[in-house]
Amino acid sequence: MDELGLIDVLGRPLISQAKEVKINKALVPGGEVEEIIWEATRQVEEELQIEDAGWINFSITSPDVITDAARIANLKLSRLYYTKDPLGKQAIRLWTDYTFGTGMTAHAEDEKTEEARKAFWDAPANQTVLSCRGQRKSSDMLLVDGEVFFALFLGASSEGVKIRRIQPLEITEIITDPDDIEDVRYYRRQWMDVQSKLHDEYYRSVSNVKDVATPDNLGRSVTKTQDALIYHLTYNTIGQRGNPLLLPALDWIKQYRRFLASRVAIMLALARFAWKTKVKGGQPIVDTIKAQTHGKEIAAGSQLLENLGSDTTPIKADSGAKNAHEDARMLKLQVCAAVGIPEQYFGDISTGNLATAKTVELPMVKMFQSYQQVWDDTYQDIDTIVLTHVGRAPDKQYIDRDFPAISPVDYVAMADSIQKIIQVIPELGLSSDVQQQALLSIGVNNPGEVLDALEEAVKKNPTLALTRALKQIREVISNNGNKE
What pLDDT does 2 receive? Predict the structure, then answer.
């Protein structure tokens, strides 16, 4: 044990930072060059030593390789870079924009199921979570924090279900079945309210609605409807707790910011002096020449007159910008790789072109499609809990969800394709899914409401329904005549 009394996660003593530096210096070969290299790399080596000592959890009982303390530190750092750093902000913004755009839409074929869905999704109390604004905020929270905890307040079956989000920092423990780590039973939440009163409560998992066990062994039982049921959504992890999207990029964002700050310092230093003048003589001569222009505004294009006793030349201000650009690009590419977005989306449009867009951006399309499916599954799970609570049968719980197109749609080509397909298979024109997709393709953001309005118009105006039927008959006759 050293003088600081530090130990690592395996219980081994850690030597102090000063002693570590002293030992490493003793091992460095002599020579001025080696000393310079050591000074340049010392900070990186020390940071890596801290990371190896405190970040890696070698426990064989958990798939998480990051300790709880490090996870919390990463979460806070991710929030900071998302808020203040251009690269971090742009990465999160692009993920959410491509995935949700103007918001996800949904519709259920079963009338009562649609009524129950609307009662939940359109409730004013749930708009902070389920509206387009709420969907985007949930996505940002998942990407920045690495996880989202949705709290579902079910209450009585006759009451509306309320949904809220719980901050990940407030969830301090996840309790699972001792024999099945995937079977989460309870979540422990510790938080402080606005009156600075500390709370320590347990919530049921959405997969644990019948268990009447006592999770904290303090004589308290958690009932089905007490406070809320918790739905936990994780990202960028293979363990219980999620990790921020920016986690692999945090170190590189930090170095990129340091690099650019250093470049600014160099430019400011070079900008302090633009000219140098050599004179023959002592300090009085220097002061005399200096007084001629010091503190005076010189007009552009002015003529400078000198005798042979002085020589004024511009200072060479080559900052090595070309090499610096390449160095900065190497750091930026690490951030691009970490978040899965090409560099042309981070401020340098010259690196992208139309010829490579279809091939280079195909991985982005697949990445955002999979992220859309993650949210599709999540909202399906939440809707299933709500519909089951209000008494809808499992075979009546299907809800069709549509996300905005990730890449721009050629509306002319889309309309032409739909028209040609319907000519071959006229029945497809009667499908609400085809109609909804057609409306989405022309930029209608709420196709479900449009279809409902059209259906109501048909019911109120039988002539409109007859006209539509006659039009379909004419199209079929015309198509058959063309075939002959």
Answer: 41
